[in-house]
Amino acid sequence: MKITVVGTGYVGLVTGACMADTGVNVSCVDIDAHKIERLKEGEIPIYEPGLQEVVVNNTRKGRLSFTTSLEEGIKDSQAIFIAVGTPPDEDGSADLQYVLAVAREAGQLMNDYMVVVTKSTVPVGTSLKVKNAVQEELDKRGANIEFDVASNPEFLKEGSAVKDFLHPDRIVIGVESEKAQKLMERMYKPFVLNGHPIIFMNILSSEMTKYAANAMLATKISFMNDIASLCELVGADVNNVRRGIGSDPRIGNKFIYPGTGYGGSCFPKDVKALVKTGAEFGHRLEILEAVENVNNRQKSILVRKAKSFFGDDLSGKKIALWGLAFKPQTDDMREAPALVIIDELKAAGADVVAYDPVAMDEAKRILGDKIVFAENEYAAAEGADALFLVTEWADFRTPDFERLGKMMNQKIVFDGRNIYDSEDLNELGFAYFSIGRKPELV
To answer: Any catalytic annotation for residue 266?
Structure first.
């Protein structure tokens, strides 16, 4: 079997490499010639644990190839996965120009039966647009070639995407023909030997499933952050509340950790897109509007706490920022809370020195000389008036607080992930502020 994957970003590269790992011949296509040359040399343009090994291994075995030519890549393929970007427009809707451009080119190039699969996260109804775009190009050619469309949303978590793809808890596929279903079933059979299901459904339902899943997870995060704010006001400890409700199997203990809000390439974009879809059909998704509002507010919570302690004017204050990526195990800074925090600290007059174990290059590309970048977490804290813990990298979980106390100008910690023990810090003379718990002052 041979497949083509168009787009070598996060989703496309993981899909292509992991498919090749089961013996499928995969051609990955991208218009970025520099990226393609890097991939041919085994250089991975994103940070994702385990991905380089899978790419290099399957490239060496000849099962995974890279090209800028869709005409070359599509030859002899039985399926083409569209995994290009769907950036949000200003109104929050997903921009489908790249998806439909690939569909049109596929219609211009295909010579035999093929399944055109949308792997990108796309609004409900996109596969019909893809089908029409392919058919229009076939009609222009006067070509009577059978094809099907399918929807195969991804449920990968950045930082564990390779593991998620190779050992999925479920695979969702939307199809409209038995022929397409059989092809997709054969393609994915190696991934469900662990007993987890392939869930086939109609295409509209599969497209909705992707958005509904991400919106539900985002809702859990915003709900817990809202409860955390109330906990502080009434004197409750959100960590106790989290454990109490998380033990209920109807709720579960995932995505109920309070923090500085969600970011990344999926949740913010998908919540906006689903709200926009609802509006287009005359249905206001009020819960998701609230989810988005709470999340936007939550990204500022550490700065609000700092202003409450120091005053609104932070001029002359040096703030050490630990963590820049939106989550650990990735260098992705899209919609990262750190970006909002930095903007607000700088607007209040503070100097910011930051460190992240992986995302430094990406941060420098985005921020330039807006802040100072440190060589390590301790260098960032040298002479700082406060430490902001923003991303819960393992590197930051058990720092030497005695060393930090001697290095910092003031012993103050604002913990945006609730990973430190207030009693331990108080014994060392630190003032400690967290999320959803009473501040511990000295």
So the answer is: yes
